[in-house]
Amino acid sequence: MVLSKTASQSDVSVHSTFASRYVRDALPRFKMPENSIPKEAAFQIINDELMLDGNPRLNLASFVTTWMEPECDKLIMDSINKNYVDMDEYPVTTELQNRCVNMIAHLFNAPLGDGEAAVGVGTVGSSEAIMLAGLAFKRKWQNKRKAEGKPYDKPNIVTGANVQVCWEKFARYFEVELKEVKLREDYYVMDPVKAVEMVDENTICVAAILGSTLNGEFEDVKLLNDLLTEKNKETGWDTPIHVDAASGGFIAPFLYPELEWDFRLPLVKSINVSGHKYGLVYAGIGWVIWRSKEDLPEELIFHINYLGADQPTFTLNFSKGSSQVIAQYYQLIRLGYEGYRNVMENCHGNAMVLKEGLEKTGRFNIVSKDHGVPLVAFSLKDNKRHDEFEISDMLRRFGWIVPAYTMPADAQHITVLRVVIREDFSRTLAERLVIDIEKVLHELDTLPAKINAKLAIAEEAESQTGSVKKTDIETQREVMAYWKKYVSERKSNKNKIC
Amino acid sequence: MVLSKTASQSDVSVHSTFASRYVRDALPRFKMPENSIPKEAAFQIINDELMLDGNPRLNLASFVTTWMEPECDKLIMDSINKNYVDMDEYPVTTELQNRCVNMIAHLFNAPLGDGEAAVGVGTVGSSEAIMLAGLAFKRKWQNKRKAEGKPYDKPNIVTGANVQVCWEKFARYFEVELKEVKLREGYYVMDPVKAVEMVDENTICVAAILGSTLNGEFEDVKLLNDLLTEKNKETGWDTPIHVDAASGGFIAPFLYPELEWDFRLPLVKSINVSGHKYGLVYAGIGWVIWRSKEDLPEELIFHINYLGADQPTFTLNFSKGSSQVIAQYYQLIRLGYEGYRNVMENCHGNAMVLKEGLEKTGRFNIVSKDHGVPLVAFSLKDNKRHDEFEISDMLRRFGWIVPAYTMPADAQHITVLRVVIREDFSRTLAERLVIDIEKVLHELDTLPAKINAKLAIAEEAESQIGTVKKTDIETQREVMAYWKKYVSERKSNKNKIC
Q: Is the N or C terminus of chain B more exposed, i.e. has fewer CB atoms within 10 Å?
């Protein structure tokens, strides 16, 4: 007798995932499924769908670290189940955070006495760091105004229009007015002169950026400090400075140590930096450091007792993973000054290789400076037939993710492509990117212009419906209308730079 | 000729870490080291120091998940370098978040039409979720008051004194007054009657907790809804409800599906839940769901364009890891209703085993209810000689981390020990914990009372200096003073419950 089982009688766990029914069932999207499925199937299904995400290491849009050493990956995985906020239970992890805060405070030349503990905290990113710093400024300013018997209901903050979106979030969520210094063509960062002019009695701080998201440029914090010091002498308002060093904070001390931008300038009261950008840690860690205890109002701090000692905390998030804090400490002691300097010099060198390769094509203007965050922002010399957005789209076919952006007000007519050079972007990749960009240019040269194509289709449609042929002026107006609509669509869609 | 190398001439990479000089050098604590060290040494040094942290799985203080399947660990590690906020670059990860939001919204009976997208977002934890929900209530209330021409500068929120610290943070950072309903002995959650009494025209919402941190109890949201509906009819204030279901949100639908606490109640406008508690994901993921679009003011939402479609975002954090979102989706489809139900039933069963074991000792009162979050909160029937804090300290020697807390106002004289039963706390561990608690009790019984010991030392000291012997009354006063100081130290140190 032949013994045969029907498919439904076989032990389900025998089937390899792709032989099982789990890859035939529609994956739930809106509601939880009723039944469980085997863990192998769950893993495979999710893993496979995620193949369609971009490759993080080819994501040249992002400043955020995409590679770490395997030893660090192991530390990360070993601590993935540690809830950072349980300070009582994980005292070593808590101490590692404190060590990082102290190391970074010293990196930024905080005026600390020997053995004096720095004032700062680890956050989930620069967004949280900026909100905490902004909150501290707002509360300090309110207390000062209350003591003076003056109104304190209309706080504002002065920044450049090139600020990252988290400043707009801070302003909107914490009810602070955002006064932006507009940019202009060829000047894509905050002008310190204009910024100081905009400062009034309701200004809680002026925020300067070390490493603008748009073109990597460092704002002149020293000039801002000097001009604001003068104004403070006249007005007596004592307006402070915050430096958003999200990108630049881990670059300037190693590549440009003589550049004065940090606590060496007296008006700088707090600084934030992203551990997950050039701090060389995966996404999920930022740092904010205050100059001294006086710059962080006590009423914002919550005190938790651990091991009989007071652990003050000032964060928006509570429970979160410990892995990134441990990874940051790993990088700080593994690399040291020497290692970070080497990494930043390599990034800078490879940025120059890319920049020179692009210049050699003769088709691009380089918008970024050599001095600043290692990135290359470039725009087409002639973008009438094809523009930067098309280049960005076509590069995707090769696997590269290179974003195109329009500048904020008042330089919205400028569009740039931006490549961020991270630690793991080698010279080989830089050269390959140049070759692929050349291929894209070549292909675009053979294609008709998008606007001409639209017009041709329109004319085609008209001749088919037999309408009267338009005069030259009408045709010209139509071309202008198409062009304006096309450009404004692009502008409104693509203006949010991350 | 014998060729010998001195130690310093050997190639450093030859030495095993523990043979190298790196384990003799003092580890940097305040400043970054000048030089790099090998990655193996960095790994080993950090790994070894972290051995002195508590074992996360024996950390019975925390609700936050400490174990996941290896398949999920793999998904986590594979996506550790994906920055979640790059929606353009990682469209699948973004869609997984959206699917989770929809699944959780349906789990909470959000009134959605067929194919209608839910309104919600993934956060880093319930803290961020609560801040976002609170912000939405505050803004909605402000807009309403402005439209009515009434003052909007004194918003308040009504909660129980048993709220988790993140509500206090929200109140302090977003300038909302916190009106707390005091507890009383034997009633450790918010009393809906008292809460509704405290509601006034400046109340932006009433926050109920499903799964109080102190004793796991579910607050009666239905009663609150009914009472508040009546009051709203009288006053016309339209005060809404927010449910902080940080713990309970992933328990109630599976263990108590008939319990009405979610969007089935008309006044409930938003709910937060921690994915990293009974959502069974590692620390770093929470969810907030709004009833409908109307409950989330448009002006708080930032619009980012990706893939030509609008992706609205409303978060405090920007860059963060993608791993926890993917892990949450894994759990939702891997387990389904069936799996979550099984896990919660197991947790409940093991909580009962622990509770019965403790009751059998005859030394404890059980403060937690059977119905609610699977945890066991218990206090000593007689804590005059030794108290719960001493039991907590002595359990540490066995490796268990069992915290002791005093209740908030007005029940500060009650101290409890609390054991949280998570997914990975098996019956074997429950039985072992009971045995170890019995050992601790036995040992404490043999030790003199701490207060008597202090008094004895004091008397000893006095007799040595030869002061006049105190009268009985003076001695009694001294004892009382010692006792009050001891208790108040404990209270102030240990009152922050996480």
A: N
Percent of chain B with pLDDT strictly greater than 70: 85
Identify the helix (H) or strand (E) that includes residue B305: strand B302-306
Q: Is 90 exceeded by the pLDDT of residue B256? A: yes
Q: What is the CA radius of gyration of chain B?
A: 27
pLDDT at residue B486, rounded to an integer: 57
* Distance of alpha carbon B202 from alpha carbon B296, whole angstroms: 19
Could you give the CA distance from residue A212 to residue A9 in angstroms, rounded to a whole number?
63
Q: Shortest CB distance from B54 goes to which of A69, A90, A172? A: A90
Q: What is the C-alpha separation between B407 and A443, in angstroms, rounded?
A: 72
Chain centroid to Cα B338, Å, comes to 25
Q: For chain A, say whether B396 makes contact (Cβ under 8 Å).
A: no
A114 and chain B in contact, CB less than 8 A: no
The tokens describing A18, both together, are 């792709």
Query: Residue A178 in contact with residue A167, Cβ under 8 Å?
Result: yes
Nearest beta carbon to residue B317 from set A74, A125, A173: A125
Residue B103 and residue B249 in contact, taking contact as beta carbons nearer than 8 Å: no
The rounded distance, in Å, linking the Cα atoms of A491 and A325 is 38
Q: Are B416 and B367 in contact (CB under 8 A)?
A: yes
The pLDDT of residue B153 is above 90: yes
pLDDT score of A38 more than 50: yes
> In the structure encoding, which two tokens stand for residue B260, read together?
């009405």
Residue B214 near residue B378 (C-beta atoms within 8 A)? no
A107 touches chain B (CB under 8 A): yes
> At A272, is the secondary structure helix, strand, or coil?
strand
Report strand pairing: B286-290 vs B404-406: unpaired
> Exposed (0-12), middle (13-18) or buried (19+): which is A34, by Cβ within 10 Å?
exposed
Interface of B with A in 308-327 (CB under 8 A): 308, 316-322, 324, 326
CA torsion sign, B126 to B128 to B129 to B134? Answer: positive
**ipTM, interface predicted TM-score of the complex:** 0.85
What is the DSSP-derived secondary structure letter of residue A174?
A: T
Distance of CA B180 to the CA centre of its chain: 19
Amino acid at the residue B44: Q
Number of alpha helices (DSSP H) and beta strands (DSSP E) in chain A: 13, 13
Alpha carbons B41 and A332: distance in angstroms, whole number: 13
